[in-house]
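Table 4 source record.
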Amino acid sequence: MKPIKHFRHAKSKISLKFKIWLYFVIFTVIVLALLWIFQIFFLERFYKGIKARTAVESMDIIAESFMSDNKDEFYRTVDEVALENELCVEVTDRYGRHIYKKHVLADCIIHNLNNENNRIIDEIDDSENGIIKKMPQNKRTGAPTLICGMRLGSAKAPQGYLIINSALAPVEATVAIIKRQLMFITTLLIIIAFIISLYLAKRISAPIDRITKSAERLAKGDFTTKFDGRGYLEAKKLADTLTYAEKELSKVDMMQRDLIANVSHDLRTPLTMLKAYAEMIRDLSGDNPVKRNEHLEIIISETDRLALLVNDMLDLSKLESGRQKLTPSEFGISGKLSEIIDRFKGLSEKNGYTINFTPDEERIVCCDTVKIEQVIYNLINNAINYTGDDKQVFVRQINTDDGVIVEVEDTGDGIEEDKIKLIFDKYYRSENHKREVVGTGLGLSIVKAVLKMHNYDYGVRSTLGKGSTFWFKISDVRKQD
């Protein structure tokens, strides 16, 4: 196994430039090998096959003309075919007597050789389809020759016979010439292929090399890296994709830093309070029941704040990872909104907030009750944090033909247009507020995750100086009877 692993490891280290060069050279060698095989080893076979096919086609043309009644046209056809294809043509009657002949070759086997023609006619009669093809040697010259014969008419009542003779030129001299030419061409092509392959390998691999070096800098945390994909379209697309990935990684890195900073801040503040009041109980108020209870309440409050932060982080992590599943159930949305708003009565009465609810007709919806409650609660809590000095929050239910829209509006300073797209990001907080914001900064991120799980539309409308309206649409509604 080790040699195989070593080979694979070594193979993976082969550069793209070398692979391109190697593939190009191999392709050239294969092309040249095929050229040698077909031009040298199969040349004679191709030549004889072409000559035989030409002779058979010529016989078909002459036979078709023979069967017509126009003898002048027949004689003209024989002459044209014989001259065009360098053929000797002999046409006889059913008894082997000459009807017409056209001899083009200087040394024609069938020219004035009745005995030879008679033997050929006998072979035609003995054949299955009345057609023969053979390539004997000319007994006088020893050169190869082609003889084809065809019966004119049916086997039982033949009208005559057609015999064609064509000389086959020796191909040895031609092969020798082609070999010398191929040797020269092969040497030249190998040199050209070597040079072109080196150039192409360098040109094709250059953008990849540049992109690889940039990717290595990006992997080390340099988010200012530029990806240069000049050279060809695929490299440019790769460079553009990596540039986009770099921007996204930069955002993730920045969000990670912000996350650590915000979590550290949100954890440090209550922990400091816990330690301070625990020390006060130990050193000052341990024997004073009133002070001790007051300090203990603060410790409990800060503990709840820590628990809320941890729970929000866990919830968001589960939602984004897909580990939490939806548990749909049917419930009335008007009743659910009223129930949630009632939970804020204590806070409203204590701090002077007014939550105005405008319901629509009760509509039965089907979704995850707990998670939708969390969405509504977070939106109302967000509106309380950012509403204006009048401390007014407006909750509206709007029934539509295909769902229910829930809107939560505040009267605060609003959100800048370029900041709206960031409002649902983790730990993003608008700077347009006039009081200390209570919460973990994860509320809207949880809203976004829950609504995406349900595949519900959501968004925010905002006008500077007039407040913001967060909304979402529940599309899973039971049809009314």
